[in-house]
């Protein structure tokens, strides 16, 4: 039986084929070269997590698991609200069919702040990596559950060619082991199973201990309270990717400050 991730992959491959047919590669590469330089996504997270938490705050209108999350949706205003609240980086969903995202949201959010931005989308083809840079992305996501080893290496190489960082996303031990030959220093542990939508912070509790020490851990999804961050910090996660729980708040700046409000101690807990 096909899962949501299978369905996303199927329509994404068709969408990429359409986009490639509509835009010559040379034109896309010109746009990528003309984009403002990458802002150092991984560097920002390393710096923030040296003394506290690194927060990737997500601009997310809707999702397959929750439907519409935020009706009052203004990406530049949300980007500014996150920046004022202390976010380290932004994640912007650009996928339309499942998340009501749009490429223009990334462009507008990045232009509104100085924060490095992740293009949160489903990438299978190096063409999409070049497109991400042309849109201004500072980082791309590679979802190990949805690509082969060869595809992951190819996407990573393309991102490095454009000076972008890469967040490698895993959900189980087998996917984590597949990251070993890859070069990116950031491992995102997604607490959400993208096939079943089940969310448990135990995913981070179990996998974080197995991540090599030279990689930066980002715990993703299902984070609602400062206590969640403090708890996962004890397992070695100092960086977090949070969408829904912040997007549901009227005052996004206050919510961002609040979730970051339990700072780390020297022992790594709060
Ligand atoms: O959010 C979903 O329902 C979803 C379904 C299928 C594939 C991906 C999905 N989400 C992408 C994400 O990983 C999250 O947007 C991100 O980690 C933030 O999660 P949350 O804080 O729970 O909104």
UniProtKB/TrEMBL annotation:
<keyword id="KW-0210">Decarboxylase</keyword>
<dbReference type="GO" id="GO:0004640">
    <property type="term" value="F:phosphoribosylanthranilate isomerase activity"/>
</dbReference>
<keyword id="KW-0456">Lyase</keyword>
<keyword id="KW-0057">Aromatic amino acid biosynthesis</keyword>
<dbReference type="InterPro" id="IPR011060">
    <property type="entry name" value="RibuloseP-bd_barrel"/>
</dbReference>
<comment type="similarity">
    <text>Belongs to the TrpC family.</text>
</comment>
<keyword id="KW-0028">Amino-acid biosynthesis</keyword>
<feature type="domain" description="Indole-3-glycerol phosphate synthase">
    <location>
        <begin position="5"/>
        <end position="258"/>
    </location>
</feature>
<dbReference type="InterPro" id="IPR045186">
    <property type="entry name" value="Indole-3-glycerol_P_synth"/>
</dbReference>
<keyword id="KW-0822">Tryptophan biosynthesis</keyword>
<dbReference type="GO" id="GO:0000162">
    <property type="term" value="P:L-tryptophan biosynthetic process"/>
</dbReference>
<dbReference type="GO" id="GO:0004425">
    <property type="term" value="F:indole-3-glycerol-phosphate synthase activity"/>
</dbReference>
<dbReference type="InterPro" id="IPR001468">
    <property type="entry name" value="Indole-3-GlycerolPSynthase_CS"/>
</dbReference>
<dbReference type="Pfam" id="PF00218">
    <property type="entry name" value="IGPS"/>
</dbReference>
<comment type="pathway">
    <text>Amino-acid biosynthesis; L-tryptophan biosynthesis; L-tryptophan from chorismate: step 4/5.</text>
</comment>
<protein>
    <recommendedName>
        <fullName>Indole-3-glycerol phosphate synthase</fullName>
        <ecNumber>4.1.1.48</ecNumber>
    </recommendedName>
</protein>
<dbReference type="InterPro" id="IPR013798">
    <property type="entry name" value="Indole-3-glycerol_P_synth_dom"/>
</dbReference>
<dbReference type="InterPro" id="IPR013785">
    <property type="entry name" value="Aldolase_TIM"/>
</dbReference>
